[in-house]
Amino acid sequence: MDIVYHEQSRCFHLYNEHISYIITVLRNGQLGQLYCGARIRDREDFTHLLELAPRAMSSCTYEGDRFFSLEHIKLELPAYGNGDYKAGAVELLQQNGSRITEFSYESHSISHGKPRLHGLPATYAEADDEALTLTVTLRDALTGMRAELNYTVFRDYAAIARSVRYVNGGNDTVTLTRAMSLCLDLPDCNYQWLQFSGRWARERQLISRELTQGVISIGSLRGHSSHQHNPFVIIKRPTADEDKGEVMGISLVYSGNFLMQAEVDAHMTLRLMAGIHPENFAWQLEPGKAFQTPEAVLVYSDSGLGGMSRTFHQLYGKRLARGMWRDKPRPILINNWEGTYFNFTEDKLLDIARRAKDCGIELFVLDDGWFGRRWDDRGGLGDWTANPTRLPNGVTGLADKITELGMNFGLWFEPEAVSRDSALFEAHPEWLIATPGRNISHGRNEYLLDFSRPEVVDNIHDQMAAVLGSSKVSYVKWDMNRSISECYSSALPPERQGEVFHRYILGVYDLYERLTAEFPHILFESCASGGGRFDPGMLYYAPQAWASDNTDAVERLRIQYGTSFCYPLSSIGAHVSAVPNHQMYRITTLSTRANVACFGTFGYELDLSKLSGEELDEIKVQIEFMKRYRELLQFGRLYRLESPFEGNTAAWMVVSADKRQAIVAFYRILNQYNDCFTRLHLRGLDPDMLYRETQSGAVHYGDELMRAGFITSDSTAGEIFFGMMPSSDFASRLYILQADKD
Ligand code: GLA
């Protein structure tokens, strides 16, 4: 790993074993992009990669020089309007109404490690030799505005983290109306664009789009990263697949409104951008004030999508997630939501907990409905004290009883929300996000608190800290169940209303930061009506997130498969729920439900009193299995083998770091009569190692399993293996591979 500055050519080369990122100071002082991709040899000068050519009818910077045209030069911080006609990465509204800027090189510095971003989540380095950071400061002479472009290269990951800090060094107040975190100009557009989109209960579905002249984008204008689009995109060469080929993933460490965009210009070059969505964004910067953009992370892989995902999993699992739970296998929980919804008493909860304890479950989570005037979803939000009818002994009393059973206790909050029927609303109607004189759109009968106001964040903090500090709570589920509408803060002046969306998220981050620091033993799980805020920003505070309100095992195959492209398995909240499933009304076997949920944080979300003794016995076995293998299932290397987006089957596997252990999962959605023989070409094993499949006892070398394949045919192909039952719809099987002794 190094960052080299070549003074003669004014080139910066950031590299590690896997990746090179090369930029240069251009003749006009702007920062140019020369190369981003697989590691290449360093040399004194890379400026020939600029491809300067006297193209006809182009805007040129210098009179009489047709070679230097910003229409064609690849830029790191482009601004619209000075000869570059693509969308820019920065836009500054000045006092005279102009938005033209000329950011040019002023200085640079290279430092060990990685500085934290003030008030924002970001990847980090634990030791100085893990990362190097380059800061290039550009200055717009006319306004005095400085842009500090920060680039971090990591020793161990094929990744570059990028963010920009703007500092108003001039005498006038200016307004940032566009401040993207990342801009990457690439010399060609021969890529496919993959995005992870959907809707509530159908999050992160893999969608592939072709790049062609023009703009394609995804984003959120809802105030949270959203169910609709995830702040993550991939570009891959058309021939790249799971195992081979060039792939780049771009992920934004942010939980609010975002934009990810690809623009292909007339000469088929590609500009990628990621950052806060410029729509509704306008940030005033008085002289001396600074604005920090969120961080974007770029991962390069020449070993396909799988290689890219494993880099994200390691980087985000180890150097984005924080706290004592980061590296720990997660507790097996039972959550009462789908078991009881709002219909519970303390006795009912204790009954579920006792049965759960008997099955080996470690954590009891009390979901929505325990507080204030919360009888259904129309009241109570904002009042975080126990409802005495529901919990006569308060949270403390219930938590004590649960812990006496030998289980840990977890609690649901929706800190950002308020109900009209609540003491908080009665005391502070002005704390809502609402535009004066306008209707407030409804969402799940609730409103959002104006988290851009510090006093609101303080109030919720104090209420939550009082509960968490006085009761034995070891887990918090932090929910958020509606999007922002009629966005306006009555605490901010008119010219600052364009800051509310971002200030809201900063308020959320502030509350997370305080609570995670004050209660370091608590495991936080983020949630937003399921997966409406499943993003890297949340992962920084909460190492796991409820992936979706859809708990159907078959639907979950696609949701969890899509989620796995960027996010580690240890972050994917997944539960076994009742059948018929409450969202899909589908009946799947208990075993298939567990076989899907175990590739995640694993828990149960049903009423155990409604299960038969046989089912409870099966659950006990599932829990024993999970306890034995959760380290591997949550922290092993993931290899996706068959995509549920492509056919009737899905398969994936996890392999331990030392390659001595692997678990392979195979799912067939609809049963096939007289089916073909099936086999999986396994991945990530040691070719020379002999593996024993623990159920059948059969042994195979790694090379055979990866090349010839692992046979998964069953009765559908006329074969019956080791007394296996005839198959049915929604079948699944797990195989454990263990290195044979010698
Ligand atoms: C959201 C969550 C659910 C549950 C309910 C409670 O929908 O995603 O898991 O907590 O809220 O109201």
In short:
The chain is an alpha+beta fold and 742 residues long. Helices cover 19% and strands 30% of the residues.
Give the rounded overall mean pLDDT. Answer: 97
Q: Regions with pLDDT < 50 over 5+ consecutive residues?
A: none
Q: Which class of the largest domain in CATH terms?
A: Mainly Beta
**Count of individual beta strands:** 39
Any guess at the CATH architecture of the largest domain? Distorted Sandwich
The gyration radius over C-alpha positions equals 27 Å
Could you tell me the CATH topology label of the largest domain: Beta-galactosidase, Chain A, domain 5
The number of distinct structural domains comes to: 3
**Number of DSSP helices?**
12
Strand content: 25-35%
Oligomer: single chain
Rounded to the nearest angstrom, the distance between the terminal CA atoms is: 37 Å
User: What characteristic shape results from the CA principal axes?
Assistant: globular
CATH superfamily of the largest domain: alpha-galactosidase from lactobacil brevis
Based on the model shown, name its key terms:
742 residues, alpha+beta, Beta-galactosidase, Chain A, domain 5, TIM Barrel, Immunoglobulin-like, 10-stranded antiparallel beta sheet, 9-stranded parallel beta sheet, 12 helices, 19% helix, binds alpha-D-galactopyranose
Fold and architecture overview:
The protein is α+β, with helices and mostly antiparallel strands. The strands form seven sheets. Strands 6, 7, 8, 9, 11, 12, 14, 15, 19 and 20 form a ten-stranded antiparallel beta sheet that branches. Helix 4 links the parallel strand 22 (363-366) and strand 23 (408-413). The radius of gyration is 27 Å and the shape is globular. The protein binds alpha-D-galactopyranose. Residues 337, 367-368, 412, 479, 481, 527, 529-530, 546, 549 line the site of alpha-D-galactopyranose.
